[in-house]
């Protein structure tokens, strides 16, 4: 992150401004990815008029960075109407899409509207692997064509991969493909539980051997020695730090108007169909509770050697049952990265050795490992 | 530099300069500054209070000297000639980065709104 961007984030935090918002336009999708956390049925999406009203409110609240995502955004017939309105309000717009419906004409329109960047989901360079994950025959070819159309328009494009059992051998291939097209590549190591709490898809996570390999891939993590270095624990100053930007300078709004601290933190905090966005942002008891939590308030993580270097996601901790608790997925990452177990993992091991019942949910036991979070691979907001 | 047309009813005045916000950038007021993202350059600009005032008034039809007189001289206690000179240098620089469009005639475009003020909480 550039120093100016960091400065901007710090200023937004001090002023209580939601600098970045992810807005999902639909949960409907033309793909059926095996690892997706969404319910794809339409339970009453906001209309274009409702989105425009919300965009007015977001601009007034000070939002600059707007991510439009889904579901597949291009399935909305009014997608460009909403995007045009957002750009007229001078948001910096990033799009997340599978690209299947982006052809030359759509790419040219996106360029005209000066979107900041487009992220396209690509899970393998091999059609038989990618299409088996998306369950849409021909989807890899379409997604790659979209990336080329967008690149030819001069847009900034990223191929976004997710590490899972089905494709862990292919991330280098996707990275090489991105380089050949001349676009960026990112690898997301986090498989997120379903929004209704169902954790069964976590079984798609890769095992620790695969993680070890990824952690030691310079092309992914940069300086391996630094990335895997032994943590020093948290200082007194660190205890006052916030876990992440969720609820502080970032939030998420679903296609139904529900406001959450983050897309990965499904704590219902209000609904923009019933209240003004800024009233929710300023006065939601749930968001205010999230904002009260400092590292020092986390019973286990504040005592953990990984306290300040862990990628702990408060949303995943919430999905695990306690937003002040550890996120075991991130504990696993810290362990695989450094070889040092977290406080939480030590407690689980001790409990298992004593024959005491595990406190971890059944879904989590299925995790054999999770992967590193290389600098460019975080699923969390900056 | 652009070559804009002159909208009906808005004839250009000799020696006047007109400025308009580019539709290719993203921008928002953050406290007393305006943050501007220029995607084509992958660059962020921070405009201070004075530059932010010019940005917010850059509607394409108000001459720059009027903007300087109304917003800069009144709000910042500066002499008109010096303020206009500085403003001209600023807008030319920002135009060079694609942030503003500068012309000697009113600029016809569906100009986007300036970064709105944050509502009180």
CATH domain class name of chain B: Alpha Beta
- Strand arrangement, major sheet of chain A: 6-5-4-3-2-1-7-8
Domains counted in the coordinates of chain B: how many? 1
Approximately what portion of the residues of chain B adopt beta-strand conformation?
Answer: 15-25%
Report the count of strand segments of chain B: 6
How is the CATH topology of chain B named? Answer: Outer Surface Protein A, domain 3
Low-confidence stretches of chain B: 1-9
Mean pLDDT of chain A: 89
Low-confidence stretches of chain A: 358-382
Shape of chain B: globular
Oligomer: heterodimer
Radius of gyration of chain B (Å): 14 Å
CATH architecture of chain B: Alpha-Beta Complex
Main sheet record of chain B: 3 strands, antiparallel
Notes on the structure:
- The complex is a heterodimer of chains A (about 375) and B (about 120).
- Chain A has about 375 residues and is α/β, with parallel strands linked by helices.
- Helices cover about 35% and strands about 10% of the residues of chain A.
- Chain A has 16 helices and eight strands.
- Chain A has an eight-stranded mixed sheet with strand order 6-5-4-3-2-1-7-8, covered by helices on one side.
- In chain A, helix 2 packs parallel to helix 3 (about 80-90).
- Chain A is globular and about 60 Å long.
- Chain B is α+β, with helices and mostly antiparallel strands and about 120 residues long.
- Chain B has helices at about 50-55, 65-75, 80-95; strands at about 20, 25-30, 35-40, 45, 60-65, 100-105.
- Chain B has a three-stranded antiparallel sheet with strand order 5-1-6.
- In chain B, strand 3 (about 35-40) and strand 4 (about 45) form a beta hairpin.
- In chain B, helix 1 (about 50-55) packs antiparallel against helix 2 and helix 2 packs across helix 3.
- The chains are: A alpha/beta (about 375), B alpha+beta (about 120).
- The interface between A and B is medium-sized, with 31 and 27 residues.
């Amino acid at each position: 992150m550039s120093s100016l961007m960091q400065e901007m984030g710090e200023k937004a935090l001090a002023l209580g401004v939601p600098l970045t918002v992810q807005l999902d336009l639909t949960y409907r999708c033309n793909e059926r990815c095996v690892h997706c956390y969404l319910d794809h049925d339409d339970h009453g999406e906001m209309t274009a008029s409702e989105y425009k009203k919300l965009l007015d409110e977001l601009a007034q609240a000070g939002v600059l960075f707007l991510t439009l995502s889904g579901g597949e955004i291009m399935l909305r017939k009014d997608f460009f109407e909403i995007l045009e309105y957002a750009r007229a309000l001078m948001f910096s717009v990033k799009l997340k899409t599978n690209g299947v419906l982006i052809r030359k004409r759509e790419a040219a329109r996106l360029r005209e509207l000066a979107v900041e960047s487009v992220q396209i989901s690509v899970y393998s360079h091999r059609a038989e692997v990618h299409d088996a994950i998306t369950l849409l025959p021909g989807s890899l070819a379409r997604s790659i064509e979209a990336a080329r159309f967008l690149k030819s328009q001069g847009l900034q494009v990223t191929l976004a991969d997710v590490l899972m059992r089905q494709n862990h051998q292919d991330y280098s291939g996707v990275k090489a493909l991105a380089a050949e097209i001349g676009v960026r590549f990112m690898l997301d190591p986090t498989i997120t539980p379903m929004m209704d709490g169902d954790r069964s898809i976590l079984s798609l996570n890769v095992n620790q051997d695969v993680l070890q390999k990824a952690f030691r891939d310079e092309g992914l993590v940069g300086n391996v020695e630094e990335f895997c270095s032994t943590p020093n624990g948290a200082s007194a100053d660190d205890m006052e730090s916030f876990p992440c930007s969720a609820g502080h300078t970032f939030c998420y709004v679903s296609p139904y108007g529900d406001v959450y601290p983050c897309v990965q933190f499904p704590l219902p905090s209000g609904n923009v169909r019933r209240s003004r966005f800024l009233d929710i942002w300023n006065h939601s008891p749930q968001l205010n509770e999230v904002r009260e939590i400092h590292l020092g308030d986390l019973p286990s993580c504040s005592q953990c050697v990984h306290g300040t270097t862990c990628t702990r996601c408060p949303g995943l901790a919430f999905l695990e049952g306690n937003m002040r608790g550890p996120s075991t997925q991130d504990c696993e990452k810290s362990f695989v990265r450094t070889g040092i177990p977290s406080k939480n993992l030590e407690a689980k091991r001790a409990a298992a050795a004593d024959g005491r019942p595990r406190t971890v949910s059944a879904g989590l036991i299925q995790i054999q490992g999770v992967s590193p979070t290389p600098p460019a691979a975080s699923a969390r907001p900056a | 530099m652009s070559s804009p047309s002159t909208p009906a009813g808005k004839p250009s005045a000799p020696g006047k300069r007109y400025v308009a916000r580019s539709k290719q950038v993203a921008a928002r007021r953050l406290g007393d500054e305006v943050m501007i993202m220029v995607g084509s350059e992958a660059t962020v600009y921070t405009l201070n209070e004075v530059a932010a005032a010019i940005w917010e008034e850059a509607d394409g039809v108000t001459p720059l000297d009027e903007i300087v007189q109304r917003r800069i001289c009144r709000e910042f206690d500066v002499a008109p000639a010096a303020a206009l000179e500085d403003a001209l240098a600023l807008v030319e620089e920002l135009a060079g980065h694609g942030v503003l469009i500068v012309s000697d005639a009113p600029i016809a475009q569906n100009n986007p709104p300036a970064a709105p003020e944050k509502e009180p909480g």
